[in-house]
Amino acid sequence: MRKTALTYASREEIEVDLQCIEGAVPTDMDGFVFINSPVGTVNSSTPIPKKNPDGSDNPEWGQMVFNGDGMLFRFDCSVPGKLRVKSALLKTPCYYADEASKWGTDYYKNGIFFKSKGIARTSRTLGSRNQANTSIAAFKFPGNQHTRITVNFDAGRPFEVDPKSMKVISAIGYNKEWSESLSFIIQEDVFELVQSSAHPCFDPVTQEFFTVCFRKSMNNLVFTSIFSLDLTRIWHISNRFFKKVYRFLQSIVKFIGKLFKGIARAFMGFVFPAYLEKLKEDDTSPSEEKQEDIFGMVNSVSILKWTGKGKLQSWNIVGAKGKNLVIQQTMHQTALSKDFIVLVDSSLKFALDIMTNMPFPKYPLLNNIVRWCVAKAMEPNTPLYLVKRADLVEGVTDVKARKVMVDLETVHYAVEYENPNNDITIYTSHNAASCAAEWVRPYDTLAIDPTKPVLENTIGLMASGEMDIGRAGKFVINGVTGVKQASVKIWQKGFEGDDTTQLKEAHTWAVGLNTFRDMASADLPNTKIPYIFWQSYGLDYRLLTNFIRKMYGKYQHRKIPVKKMLEYTKKGVPFCLSRMNTATMEFEDWFHFEMNQNLRSLQFVPKKNTSESLPPELNGYILCTMINGTEDLEANEYTREVWLFDAANLKQGPVCKMAHDAFQFAFTIHSVWIPDCETSPADYMVDPIEDYTEVLNRFTNLEKKELLEAFMKKEVFPHYQ
Question: Among candidates 85, 88, 101, which has minimal Cα distance to 168?
Answer without folding.
Answer: 88
